[in-house]
């Protein structure tokens, strides 16, 4: 495994890409200035949004490879590792918006940065832009760059952070569009999710693993937990966790009809660690205790 190149500060990454440091906590980096680069693995101590305008090979992130096409946005949170596994050289083209967590501390964006789930998506879940969306993104970058080129005054931080927030909000809108339009990628997700849950409860996995989690289901469907959750929410109007809970209750209702099994046995078969947790959850979702429901039918 090649050594991971670590960038803790914006200025370090600016220098690496031969860009001037205009602000210690934020920049819009013109990647074309970097010149010829050798592929490698890198990690950052800050947020990075890549907008690449040239296809540049097979990027590896987590357990997946991604064919990084032009016209895509990839989002990285601090501490993530991304890069290319081959040692080939390439000519970068495009931009990288980089901003340090310290820039947004005490701001509305800082308080809500966790709402932008795409910072924890896998690279193969990148945002693919239409031509119109591409123009909007470049306009946002231009506004941020304008503020960086402007002499710093009392308004600079507010305007820079507000423009970053505007950019991220546009990205949320564009992802909503992508969830709808990229049918070939997302086709049949709910059906596959339903099949996964059916197979899970028809096996002995609940007794060995417990109740299925969102993270488990996402991994089985080869998606990041947040991307999977956002897709399910768009498709069904329910969170992935709510969908799982409803499935558990549906299976529980069927099992309760089997009076040869005690309610405790049913609870353990479903994956609950304690029967009282099953009873509490069942009453919360169905309105009756498991015993009351059994007596009604």
UniProtKB/TrEMBL annotation:
Alphabetized UniProt keyword annotations: DNA-binding, Transcription, Transcription regulation
Upper taxonomic lineage: Bacteria, Pseudomonadati, Bacteroidota, Sphingobacteriia, Sphingobacteriales
Keyword Transcription: yes
PANTHER family: ARAC-FAMILY TRANSCRIPTIONAL REGULATOR (PTHR43280), TRANSCRIPTIONAL REGULATORY PROTEIN (PTHR43280:SF32)
Keyword DNA-binding: yes
Designated name of the protein: Helix-turn-helix domain-containing protein
Domain of life: Bacteria
PROSITE patterns: HTH_ARAC_FAMILY_2 (PS01124)
Domain HTH araC/xylS-type: 191-296
Organism: Pedobacter ureilyticus
